[in-house]
Amino acid sequence: MRPGKPRPTARKIALGLELRKLRAARGLTIEEAAAGMGFSEAQLQRVETGFSALRRINHLSALLERHGVEETDQLELMTIWRDAASEEWVSEFKDGMTPTQMPKFVGIEEVARTIRAYHPLLPWGMLQTEEYARALFAMQQPVLEAPSESVEKAVRLRLRRRECITREDEPVNLVAIIGESALRHIVGGIDVMQGQCQELIKLSELGNVTIQILPTEGKRYRFAADFSILNMGDELPSQVQADNAWGALAMSSRPRDVGVFSRRFERLTAAALSPEETADYVRNLSREIK
Fold first, then answer.
1. For 32-58, how does the pLDDT look when each residue is reduced to its tens digit (9 = 90+)?
2. How many Å apart are CA 231 and CA 234, to the nearest integer?
3. pLDDT category, 2, cuts 50, 70, 90?
4. In what order do the strands lie in the sheet with 209-214?
């Protein structure tokens, strides 16, 4: 089934209305407002009518400056932009997405500058192959009593999410630390696991992706739960996300929470193998999987 045409949402409408009011107060036409901005008049028209959201935050910042909005007054609109941009494609997968905070988190991933992710028991979602993700969701289906079609939808969402690190246009920078156990635990069979190992090596060769393995042996700093820290750039506060055993997703932008998890990630980075050591380690591990 083809996804429907994009529809206006509350956040996109709110942002569009405010931008239109600001432009009118400045006495600018659509053509004058869009001139030299890096986006077309047609795109700005769609933004102002709530059918689209500007892709880049620097586009919004430049537009607000042209509209005479002081830098100190831009934060509120930038926050609305972040939430509006996150709705662009997530709505296709929103039905049945769990936990309830997941749509917001997935959308924020898309517009983050850098994601630092730690996962001790499974390869981080964006790094999973299609085969691994399908086997993983199939294992969970009877436990969650989910319909069979939920597996394929979950796989499509996982593959769509990873596009933010593989796209050519300003990909998100990803720094991922994975526990060795994530590759020792067999999911889907030997071929699937060997393919997953090769995928990690391939993705680590991208200029915006850094992967480190945290070995099980040795006296090393560890943390039991997976989490991620999303850096939104200088304009917006960073976000920290963590899961719990009930499948709930907690998010916070409080400086203290972000600080605690940032220090945890720094300790984990120091305890893990270097990116260069990790590639060799994963190659050897792939040969050991039998």
1. 999 999 889 998 988 888 777 777 778
2. 8
3. very low
4. 209-214, 173-179, 114-119, 227-231, 239-243, 249-252
Between residues 55 and 186, the one the model is more confident about: 186
DSSP codes, the chain:
-PPPPP---HHHHHHHHHHHHHHHHHT--HHHHHTTSSS-HHHHHHHHTTS---S-HHHHHHHHHHTT--GGG-HHHHHHHHHHHTHHHHGGG-TT-SSTTHHHHHHHHHH-SEEEEEESSS--GGG--HHHHHHHHHHHHHHHT--THHHHHHHHHHHHHTHHHH-SSSPPEEEEEEETHHHHS-SS-HHHHHHHHHHHHHHHTSTTEEEEEE-SSSS----SS-EEEEE--SSS--EEEEE-TTS-EEEE--HHHHHHHHHHHHHHHHHSPPHHHHHHHHHHHHHH--
Cβ–Cβ contacts within 10 Å for residue 5, how many?
Answer: 6
Question: What is the SS3 assignment for 250?
Answer: strand
Rg for the chain, CA atoms, rounded = 21
Helix (H, G, I), strand (E, B) or coil at 30: helix
- Note the pLDDT tens digit of each residue in 63-73: 999 999 887 77
